[in-house]
Fold this protein.
Amino acid sequence: MNRLVHALPAAYAAGALYLAHLATVSQQHGSTTRTVGLGACSLLLALAIAHHAYSRDQTRQARTDLERASRPLTTAQDLTVADLLPVPCCEAWWTAAGGEHHCTRKDQTT
Ligand SMILES: [Zn+2]
């Protein structure tokens, strides 16, 4: 798949150049209709190269976002939050609702 992703723009560019060459030859032979048609097809292939690059960038961004979203929550911020969460130390902690209390260490919950 990666080879195709890299080879396709090169094939588009070769096709665009060949069509531009054919448009030039048609112009030299006085065929305006063919010159315009071949020139337009050459431009379409040039636009396909740009669209291919845009799609490739979008795919990379989506892949990066998906990978980031699927990671487990082990960032430094998560660890800090876990450290700051109050841990009940004794029965008096519950009656003080986690506030300051006289810690007796009786009936430890942890
Ligand atoms: Zn306590």
Notes: The radius of gyration is 33 Å.
